[in-house]
Amino acid sequence: MTGRKTRARAAATAALAGCALLLAGCGIKRTGVIESGHAAAVNVPDGKKAAALYFVSKEGDRLVPVPFSIGTEYTLAPTPLLRILLDGPTGPASAAGFTTALPKVSHDQWDAVLVSKNSSDKGVTVTVPFAVGGLSELARNQLVCTVGVSAAPNTLSQVTVKGPDTVLPAADCDSPGSRR
After folding, report:
1. Distance, C-alpha 118 to centroid of its chain
2. Is it the case that residue 86 has pLDDT exceeding 90?
3. Are 58 and 98 in contact (CB under 8 A)?
4. Cα–Cα distances in angstroms (integers) from residue 100 to residues 32, 70, 162, in the given order
5. pLDDT bracket for residue 117 (50, 70, 90)
6. Bridge-partner residues for 54, per DSSP?
7. Which terminus of the chain is more exposed, N or C, with fewer CB under 10 A?
8. Is the pLDDT at 45 greater than 60, yes or no?
């Protein structure tokens, strides 16, 4: 009986020691958020060629990439992708509470929505039918990230945003405010 009691006590002691280590956190101290790198790239399983639409989180403080695909053998061009972004979140993205910081563009204005390659460099220009000078940082980054990540496969393109009021300087998706 003494051997069983000793083994039971040893097992109980080991379990308590394990719990104590878990509660102690193994000496790992808390740190703040460390931001680095580009915004998230989205890979969709089954070989689908997916683009990412960047919507505003339900908290309203950051962008969230939402994969968008039209099938395994098709890649959506940047201009139609931009039009889908300007339509706002639908389906699962809407159900998840994602929103947009961009103004709504009616379908009769879609001819004014365009993504074109810049002649001087590898970047692209987004042309929209609304004023861009007063866009919030989140709204601007929705345009920059959606088009910049999806315009050319495996490339992060600089994006210039052009509206009827002004042209904003070229920016990358990792601009301040695309991640918070």
Report:
1. 24
2. yes
3. yes
4. 27, 21, 19
5. confident
6. 65
7. N
8. no
